[in-house]
Amino acid sequence: MIGAIAGDIIGSVFEQHPIKTTEFPLFNSHSRFTDDTVLTIAVAESILDNIDYASALKRFGRQYPYAGYGLAFFRWLQTEKNTPYNSWGNGAAMRVSPVGFAFDSMDAVLIHAENSAAVTHNHPEGIKGAQATALAIYLARTGCTKSEIKTEISDRFHYDLSRSIDSIRPDYRFDISCQGTVPEAIIAFLESEDWEDAVRKAISLGGDSDTLGCITGGIAQGFYKSVPRKVIFNVKKRLPAEFLVIIQEFNRRFGLSRLS
After folding, report:
1. Is the CB of residue 163 less than 8 Å from the CB of residue 201?
2. Confidence class for position 260, pLDDT limits 50, 70, 90
3. CA max distance for the chain
4. String of DSSP letters for the chain
5. Can you give the pTM of this predicted structure?
6. Which of 54, 81, 107, 196 could be stapled to 119 by a disulfide with Cβ–Cβ 3.0 to 4.6 Å?
7. Contact at 8 Å (CB) between 8 and 213?
């Protein structure tokens, strides 16, 4: 999941200042983790410690209250009840990468992706976005080709993955929906040459850049099997020690590369 977190941090500086190019510095003094990272860590801890998703999301969300949550999610954090609010937002997809790395069958990935989304994002599009993202990661890490991933995701979720980044970029704008974010993030991965290229292409669309980077970064990590050392070095400097401990334990438990 470090690939997803890195994509979030790299994209963070462009959320309010979108760009339409792949040529940009990966990190600067304003690069930071956002709600995408906080909630990805929460999902990872939920899986590691076998606690319910809602409790983990609320614990981390309340511990890091200024990470940039959407208004509806922030209100949910403050309540004692765990009632979902029928969201179709891309928050369901940006936090789901640990599911794609942790479970060893398509059925388990789809079930846990739905469960992780439905505590807040129980709208069909919210669940669909989480499942598509997690399944793309699972397929990528288990040896499927890009063509196989594209076919499976297109057929199962009816996303149009036939478009190109160059055709999407000119008219694409900030979009908080799963249906307006997840397909574009997957296309960025499908067109990529390596992990960095995937994240650059996603952010270059000029949309919800941290979430696009997060979704694409997770899938690309699954496919390319690693994240560049220079990226991990810069990510580690920007994360709380608690997050690093959870990432290390998650990597150890599920056979992923250790943070160097």
Report:
1. no
2. low
3. 45
4. -HHHHHHHHHHGGGSSS--S-S-S-S--TT----HHHHHHHHHHHHHHHT--HHHHHHHHHHHSTTS---HHHHHHHH-SS-------BTHHHHT-HHHHHH-SSHHHHHHHHHHHHHTT--SHHHHHHHHHHHHHHHHHHTT--HHHHHHHHHHHH-----S-HHHHGGG-----BSTTTHHHHHHHHHT-SSHHHHHHHHHTT-SSHHHHHHHHHHHHHHHHS---HHHHHHHHTTS-HHHHHHHHHHHHHTTPPPP-
5. 0.97
6. 54
7. yes
Query: In the numeric block, which tokens belong to residue 86?
Result: 């029928």
Query: 182-232: per-residue pLDDT in tens?
Result: 999 999 999 999 999 999 999 999 999 999 999 999 999 999 999 999 999
Q: Could you state, in order of their start, the residue ranges of all structural domains in the chain? A: 2-14+28-253
Over the stretch 95-145, which tens digit does the pLDDT of each residue have?
999 999 999 999 999 999 999 999 999 999 999 999 999 999 999 999 999
